[in-house]
């Protein structure tokens, strides 16, 4: 496989690339918004792509919102979107548990209310969502009462993450029959002004360390997110453009699935990171080299206004 060039997307090349695809998959955090602030120009880009007849999808590792909640956030920030164009890990992990794990039973959930809602919409009952403050001592922790119907542990972003939750997950996962699924491995969430907060990857790593097991990860770079989309919409990979801010999730997903890839420098990764991977000679790392890059997706506006 030829190594991607990591070429700046500008001038006539922009229109060439856009003309060569019929679908654009946008990562969210760090590409179309940071926290609750849209990236300047991003709504115009998305809405003009749709006007130009391109299909637009939103593919986010963020597990804090249901598809409906994402559609509301997108509309509030000026993006035209419909619920079925949004693929977040709250929804995709519920699909994964249902269709890949064929889960017959409950989930011990370390995650958000949004994940609980998407699980319940898929007919999956969860236990564990919400605060879980520490109580008792070590002996009690090692023998916390476990729900016998729990057949899987699911870890997503959880602002109530706690020692007790970590311990409960360890106790459930001590049973090798209990499946272990994580939404994503993103270590940091990029916010406005170059700030960041710990991402789900930190929580997932803690549970993997305690349980001494590796989770099945649903989010990018796992190809499951793309499979979820391709099973609903006829997508031709070579006619899809994946736009992301992280080399190790977004661009890796694009490479793995045979999509064209565009790095937006408004989030986590830099061109220097990409060029280091390019020079590495390591095939895995070279899968994180994007075909193209822009400072911000706003740079493709002129090609859409021509
Ligand atoms: O929530 C995250 O960690 C990253 O989300 P993203 O895939 O939209 O960048
Ligand atoms: Mg991102």
TrEMBL record:
It catalyses: sn-glycerol 3-phosphate + H2O = glycerol + phosphate; sn-glycerol 1-phosphate + H2O = glycerol + phosphate; O-phospho-L-tyrosyl-[protein] + H2O = L-tyrosyl-[protein] + phosphate. Mg(2+) binds at residues 27, 29, 245. Divalent metal ions. Mg(2+) is the most effective. Substrate binds at residue 220. SUPFAM superfamilies: HAD-like (SSF56784). The active site is at residues 27, 29. Keywords: Carbohydrate metabolism, Hydrolase, Magnesium, Metal-binding. One of its GO terms (biological process) is glycerol biosynthetic process. GO terms for cellular component: cytoplasm. The keyword Repeat does not apply. Its EC number is 3.1.3.21, 3.1.3.48. It is an enzyme of class 3 (hydrolase). Its cofactor is Mg(2+). Belongs to the HAD-like hydrolase superfamily. CbbY/CbbZ/Gph/YieH family. Homodimer. This is Glycerol-3-phosphate phosphatase. The lineage of its organism: Eukaryota, Metazoa, Chordata, Craniata, Vertebrata.
